[in-house]
């Protein structure tokens, strides 16, 4: 399972990644959120078991709505529909609608849909802070193809996912070489890892394109033999240098990060891992420079940052987030909520 | 070990003035959100570059409103090329990746522009997958 190649041989392996990086990657991977999927009863065929058409699931944050379709279909066939009803199901016409009536962005990871719903609640009066399920309506027919930018098939979902991985690759390194140098089997494998929700299968490939991070500060000299660094084979191990690891989280041009405002726009700004080449860039400094009205340099802040459902301490380093708590598509999604006091 | 003091068993309700302060804080935050919600009306330069057999347009540089989604750029390109909705059209940024249709031109420009413009490649076949 885990590669037996040591760090010197360059193949980024789980063994060469620090234990805490792996821990946080696994925690992110195992995160789930509650969804309540209600089928539009107007679209249920006759003789359906009405009153049961609500499907509850604790869905993986790193997964996607189109990947839930097989499970929902099985539920409908087993519980709600009779034989005739089951025969006329056409998954290619299925689409999801949000509580506010808009078609859901099915190409967003489920965790992001949920966090976005959480922060939207923070600007509504008298909202509760208890976690409530994200309520979706599943339509079985008549997808609004003019509003739905893409049809939510599993194949389209895969293409969208790969596109986001490549965009993240480009943000980090200024090219998509790392992604395009993956063999086709590996590219397919990374998506299979998502579909089957298999951490090892996903990271077997993802570790080749995702920067890793080391526990020590980036300015310290590289650790000796038995290091937890990953090094490409071309780096001469005899060279002593204080330069950060070439493929490490602090060497990227920019961390792929997006900021989501409640019911609001998505912002994408360049986020270099180090400010002035030295100080690690933190969530606090990044938000102050991007959203100074909500995160003033001094004075009380009335907003907070949510990453993978966790409130982010302000001193969290962006490079660390990029290596440990990004979504499966490579992006760190920071959702901004308004504090209620 | 439970203390015998009665105070520890009650949650102090917010006093009137802290509740007011709360409302003010939230109002301030909502005002800030209003500012950030405003659509960026500025325009950025998009440069369309044909790939492979795709036809080259007479005009390649266009000023596009920054707050537009990339989907609008795709539709604009279709109209300029005179292509119908069903005709295959693949678009890429910097010959590298296809952005999500709801990515804004503003965000793409900030992250990927070169020499003051955003390069959008277009092709009739899937090139970079």
TrEMBL record, chain A:
UniProt keyword annotations, A-Z: Autophagy, Isopeptide bond, Membrane, Transport, Ubl conjugation
UniProt region (Disordered), positions on chain: 212-251
Gene Ontology CC annotations of this record: Atg12-Atg5-Atg16 complex; autophagosome; mitochondria-associated endoplasmic reticulum membrane contact site; phagophore; phagophore assembly site membrane
Domain Autophagy protein ATG5 UblB: start-end pairs: 255-336
Pfam families (UniProt xref): ATG5_HBR, ATG5_UblA, ATG5_UblB
Autophagy protein ATG5 UblA domain location: 29-139
Domain (Autophagy protein ATG5 alpha-helical bundle region): residue spans on this chain: 155-211
GO MF annotation: an example: Atg8-family ligase activity
Protein's membrane topology: Peripheral membrane protein
Cellular location(s): Preautophagosomal structure membrane
BP term (GO), one: autophagy of mitochondrion
Binding partners and assembly: Conjugated with ATG12.
Record-stated family: Belongs to the ATG5 family.
Functional description taken from the UniProt entry: Involved in cytoplasm to vacuole transport (Cvt) and autophagic vesicle formation.
Name the UniProt record assigns to this protein: Autophagy protein 5
TrEMBL record, chain B:
Any GO CC annotation of this UniProt entry: phagophore assembly site membrane
UniProt keyword Transport, yes or no: yes
One GO process term, biological-process aspect: autophagosome assembly
Pfam family, one: APG12
Membrane topology: Peripheral membrane protein
Domain of life where this protein originates: Eukaryota
Subcellular location: Preautophagosomal structure membrane
This protein's record includes keyword Membrane: yes
A GO molecular function held by the record: Atg8-family ligase activity
Gene3D superfamilies according to UniProt: Phosphatidylinositol 3-kinase Catalytic Subunit, Chain A, domain 1
Keyword vocabulary terms for this entry: Autophagy, Isopeptide bond, Membrane, Protein transport, Transport, Ubl conjugation pathway
Role, per record: Ubiquitin-like protein involved in cytoplasm to vacuole transport (Cvt), autophagy vesicles formation, mitophagy, and nucleophagy. Conjugation with ATG5 through a ubiquitin-like conjugating system involving also ATG7 as an E1-like activating enzyme and ATG10 as an E2-like conjugating enzyme, is essential for its function. The ATG12-ATG5 conjugate functions as an E3-like enzyme which is required for lipidation of ATG8 and ATG8 association to the vesicle membranes.
Subunit organization: Forms a conjugate with ATG5.
Family (UniProt): Belongs to the ATG12 family.
Official protein name in the record: Ubiquitin-like protein ATG12
């Amino acid at each position: 399972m885990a590669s037996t190649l040591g760090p010197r041989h360059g193949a980024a392996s789980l063994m060469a990644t620090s234990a805490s990086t792996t821990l946080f990657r696994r925690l992110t991977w195992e995160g789930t959120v509650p969804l309540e999927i209600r089928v539009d009863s107007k679209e249920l065929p006759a003789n359906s078991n009405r009153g049961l058409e609500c499907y509850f699931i604790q869905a993986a944050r790193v997964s996607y709505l189109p990947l839930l379709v097989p499970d929902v279909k099985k539920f409908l066939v087993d519980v709600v529909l009779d034989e005739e009803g089951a025969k006329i199901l056409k998954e290619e016409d299925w689409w999801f609608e949000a509580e506010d009536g808009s078609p859901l962005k099915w190409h967003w990871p489920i965790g992001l849909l949920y966090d976005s719903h959480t922060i939207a609640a923070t600007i509504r009066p008298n909202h509760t802070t208890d976690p409530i399920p994200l309520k979706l309506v599943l339509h079985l027919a008549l997808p609004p193809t003019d509003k739905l930018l893409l049809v939510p098939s599993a194949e389209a979902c895969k293409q969208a996912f790969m596109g986001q991985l490549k965009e993240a690759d480009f943000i980090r390194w200024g090219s998509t070489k790392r992604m395009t140098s993956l063999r086709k089997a590996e590219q397919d494998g990374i998506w299979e890892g998502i579909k089957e929700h298999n951490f090892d299968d996903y990271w077997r490939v993802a570790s080749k394109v995702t920067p890793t991070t080391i526990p020590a500060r980036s300015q310290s000299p590289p650790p000796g033999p038995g290091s937890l660094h990953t090094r490409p084979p071309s780096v001469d191990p005899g060279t002593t240098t204080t330069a950060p690891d070439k493929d490490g989280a602090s060497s990227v041009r920019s961390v792929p990060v997006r900021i989501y405002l409640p019911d609001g726009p998505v912002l994408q700004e360049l986020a270099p891992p180090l400010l002035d080449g030295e100080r690690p860039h933190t969530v606090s400094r990044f938000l102050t420079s991007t959203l100074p009205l909500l995160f003033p340099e001094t004075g009380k802040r009335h907003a907070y940052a949510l990453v993978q459902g966790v409130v982010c301490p302000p001193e969290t380093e962006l490079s660390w987030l990029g290596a440990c708590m990004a979504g499966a598509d490579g992006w760190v999604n920071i959702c901004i909520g308004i504090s209620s006091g | 070990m439970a203390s015998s003091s009665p105070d520890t068993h009650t949650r102090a309700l917010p006093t009137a003035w802290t509740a007011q302060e709360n409302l003010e804080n939230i109002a301030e935050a909502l005002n800030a959100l209003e500012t950030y919600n405003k659509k960026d009306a500025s325009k950025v330069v998009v440069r369309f570059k044909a790939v492979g057999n795709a036809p080259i347009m007479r005009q390649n540089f266009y000023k596009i409103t920054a707050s537009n989604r990339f989907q609008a750029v795709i539709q604009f390109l279709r109209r300029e090329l005179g292509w119908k909705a069903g005709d295959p059209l693949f678009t890429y940024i910097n010959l590298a990746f296809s952005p999500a249709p709801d990515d804004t031109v503003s965000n793409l420009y900030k992250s990927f522009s070169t020499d003051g413009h955003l390069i959008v490649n277009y092709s009739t076949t899937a090139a970079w997958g």
